[in-house]
Design goal:
27% helix, 4% strand
Amino acid sequence: MSLVEDVREAVLAVPAGSVTSYGAVGRRIGAGPRQVGRVMGLLDEGVPWWRVVHADGTPRHLPRRPGAGTAPRRGHADARDAGGHDAGAASLGVLS
């Protein structure tokens, strides 16, 4: 199969109500997370793209959490610094 077909099949295998990361999909098919992300942009609307999230649990269309590759803006608190929990992060399930 091609990389596009491999990504499509791996994403379609994620059960409804569950999520996985680009890296987990990549490990399953022998590709890197960036390759998976690039291919995800090529897939048709019938593939549940919303089930694949960043390693920190944020979906693709939301801004990344401070500390996840970008510095926080001055004056903005991070939930981890405030002693709270990060409600924006999803629990990543295991895709076997």
